[in-house]
Design brief:
This protein is α+β, with helices and mostly antiparallel strands. It is globular. Bound molecules: glutathione (GSH).
Length: about 230
Amino acid sequence: MNDLSAFPITGKWPPRDPSVIQLYSYPTPNGVKASIMLEETGLCYEPHKVTLADADVKSPAFLSLNPNNKIPAIIDPDGPDGTPVALFESGAILLYLAEKTGRFLGNSASDKAQITQWLMFQMGGVGPMFGQLGFFYKFAGSQIEDPRPRQRYIDEAKRLLAVVETQLDGRDWIAGDYSIADIALAPWLGALEFYGAQEAVGWADHANTVAYVDRFLARPAVQRGRTFPPHD
Ligand SMILES: N[C@@H](CCC(=O)N[C@@H](CS)C(=O)NCC(=O)O)C(=O)O
């Protein structure tokens, strides 16, 4: 029987089955990357609901796992050297689970390099820029009268969308076969709808990207991962 009691987070979110991967998350574009990957790989896991409220992501229990106070985070009781591994940052979690299962990271070193490149493009570009667009377009920043921050992120989102659109020309997936780069990227493309920003960025003019997101959303594991039912 695995014992995860050394992880203070288990005091606030107790595992029912400490022998399986513990997922601490919420269904946001970053959060669903981890749950979709877990569903795609078929790994056993137990989801815990960590909302974006300070009482959850900024609780001492959660900060003990991720001092950066952001979901998702995981504990794998069955780490590579036989001891538990705790991880935050969705990109790191995707890479870890891909290495663990040998899935969704290509079949060669050059596939892996391409997939990692597009994963980093999402982590360093699409995620942060679209996140700021959400803030200035839908959330508190939308009340700021100065149009420059909003316009800056609309322009940056359009630029990034054009990169994706071109890369998807003649491809079903962003880096060859379906991979962790798609699991990272597609949920963020979908966030533009949630932000009500599709028209502002000319979403409908990006036919490859629209078809790509539909293709992603049609996958049963994606559907399960996006609506994972966190139990506490
Ligand atoms: N780079 C991080 C970003 C994670 C992130 O921004 N998570 C958001 C939800 S999508 C969050 O937890 N926000 C809570 C907060 O900032 O207090 C990752 O990819 O894991």
